[in-house]
């Protein structure tokens, strides 16, 4: 764990399995109602990250977690429902509203929004921003910017190897 400034943290992952493991640890611990905004170029590992998140949330292994680039939004059952949106093909001030995102998120869900920078929607304020940068063939830098002290504490605990939530 390395704080980039007083609020942002970064982790280096060597391969997709490590990226998924980091997200898995988040999924184990995220509280209901959490919204994550994911940023990164094509192929950086945003969907890989969401796969790990899904497994940490208890989405069964036999349920494929795929990019919603063409479907715009997927929903998966788990300890908390995972709402996975992809705004790559959308933009504008009400893109999330137009695809029904706000109807699906709530205290019984965790939401992950790929290409969150295209949201531009009033009221869209993720609890955790996740920026994934390509630093090698399989190596990634995962930068995490939590909103609020509770999310900051959770990120610090996960990155320092704290215990999983049971």
If you had to describe this structure to a student in words, what would you say it looks like?
The protein has helices at residues 16-29, 46-56, 95-98, 101-104, 149-159; strands at residues 2-3, 9-13, 35-39, 73-76, 81-86, 109-114, 128-134, 140-146. It is of the alpha/beta class and 166 residues long. It has a single domain (2-159), classed as P-loop containing nucleotide triphosphate hydrolases (Rossmann fold, 3-Layer(aba) Sandwich), CATH 3.40.50.300. An eight-stranded mixed beta sheet has the order 1-2-8-7-3-6-5-4. It is globular and about 35 Å long. The two termini are 23 Å apart.
H and E string: EEHEHEEHHEEEH
Q: Biggest β-sheet: count, sense, barrel? A: 8 strands, mixed
Helix content: 25-40%
What would CATH call the class?
A: Alpha Beta
* CATH superfamily caption: P-loop containing nucleotide triphosphate hydrolases
Helices and strands in order:
Layout: E1 2-3, E2 9-13, H1 16-29, E3 35-39, H2 46-56, E4 73-76, E5 81-86, H3 95-98, H4 101-104, E6 109-114, E7 128-134, E8 140-146, H5 149-159
Parallel strand pairs: 3-6, 3-7, 5-6
Antiparallel strand pairs: 1-2, 2-8, 4-5, 7-8
Helix pairs in contact: 1-2, 1-5
Summarize the structure.
This protein is α/β, with parallel strands linked by helices and about 170 residues long. It has five helices and eight strands. A hairpin with a 5-residue loop joins β7 and β8.
List keywords for this structure.
alpha/beta; Rossmann fold
């Amino acid at each position: 764990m390395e704080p980039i400034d007083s609020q942002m943290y970064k982790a280096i992952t060597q391969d997709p399995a490590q990226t998924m493991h980091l997200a898995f640890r988040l999924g184990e611990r995220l509280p209901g109602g959490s919204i994550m905004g994911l940023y990164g170029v094509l192929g950086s590992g945003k969907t890989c990250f969401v796969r790990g998140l899904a497994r940490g949330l208890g989405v069964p292994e036999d349920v494929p977690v795929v990019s919603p680039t063409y479907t715009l939004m997927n929903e998966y059952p788990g300890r908390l429902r995972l709402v996975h949106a992809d705004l790559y093909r959308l933009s504008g001030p009400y893109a999330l509203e137009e695809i029904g995102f706000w109807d699906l998120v709530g205290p019984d869900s965790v939401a992950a929004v790929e290409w969150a920078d295209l949201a531009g929607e009033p009221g869209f304020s993720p609890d955790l921003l996740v920026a994934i940068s390509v630093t090698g063939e399989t190596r990634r830098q995962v930068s995490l910017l939590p909103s609020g002290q509770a999310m900051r504490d959770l990120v610090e605990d996960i990155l320092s190897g704290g215990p999983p939530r049971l």
